[in-house]
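Write out the 3D structure for:
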Amino acid sequence: MNKLISKALFSSRHWTTLGVAIAIQLSLALWPLSVSHAASSGGHSSGGHSSGGHSGGSSKKGGSGGHDDGHDDSGHDDGGHDDDGHDSSKGSKGGKGKGGFRGGRGNPQGGGSRHLEDRVLTDDGGSSGSSRRGGGKPAGAGSKKGDKYGDLWVVLRDANGVPILFKDADGDGIYDTGEACTTSTAGCYPQPYYIDASSNIVLIPMDNEGHPVNEDLVVEIEFGRLNIGRAPSKVIDKALNTSLDAILQPGAVLSLDASGRVVITVDGVSKTIDSPRENIALYIAFMTGGANLSPDLKAKFDSGVAAISSLYTPTYNGTDLAASFLAAGADKTGTIGVDMVAYLNNIYDIATMTPTDFVDYSSFDYNRSALYNVTITYNELNADGSTTPVSGTIMDLVFGGANATDSGGIDAFSQAADDALQVIEFVHDTVHDLQP
């Protein structure tokens, strides 16, 4: 429980943004993609990496401008999404909740009245009908992921993000140790909760039909721009193809910016892949190993992975890169938490997040200071139009010097993604000009 509280506090923004955007290009290094989608104990393996992170000799120096400002989707066809037009997920990273299980947290917000097990576990998010993929869909439109989306709440989860179902044996309406359903799910429900103003974990009592007694306390996950991933597969495949064309163009030199987004330099001109749609397409492809792609697109994807693998090192791998892709698709002022990642695994057809089909994060480690303890110098824009040079580490400038480490679970991955998102916000709103 203390772990959950401390992780929730870590997720707060401790710095003020100033409103001028330019991307920071850094030459980060990664090791070969280790996302495996063969079942491992019923789940998908996310691979892992050493928590040692980048050594002092890692190349993270800034490049000259030339690429788009961070996380600006102008010029991209991203369905009209806007950073300020969405209320991003109110959940943050979840640590271990009651009974040693993990979840997200956020501010209480009301929801509907459908059973929680319908919302959390079924393919249609509790809506009527088994699928909305049939009917009058235009030929060639591709499959749709909207049938897995509904009112999605913060609930207790295990280390890999699978919801914990319980049967209320003592009649108190909340999960107690020993009440987890392990053999049958009949009459079992997830356990919603929130964190109050004093950072206490509060389990929300359920009635005997699986409804929250007070639905106003339930925390609902809102995805903002990450809803892009619900588009038909044809749309996502087109975005993936566009990003791969850029990565594989002749003469392209690949690097990563401060948050891990891919930067492509051709003839001295740099361009960041900052389109939310393209980053979500890359995220889905990386997490599934391109399993659902057409043969031609799968071959191009494999070539793209091979090109990106030239950047890999033993301390930052393809799973870390996937976390950055997810961050680059999200609202820059939001947060990415355990529940958001778990629900997106299902919505994006990565894994259904059931006890027999989940993403296995057990070998994934994350260490913020090992990744972001890098000094940068940039010009900060003043109100009068002048600039002031600023120098410091990303650890201090973005995270106030506070470290965060985690290993062996979905919370480590969500921490990595959320940290990348905070760096994107810093790059977008604070940095005016990076100095060489």
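Residues 2-87+225-434 form one domain.
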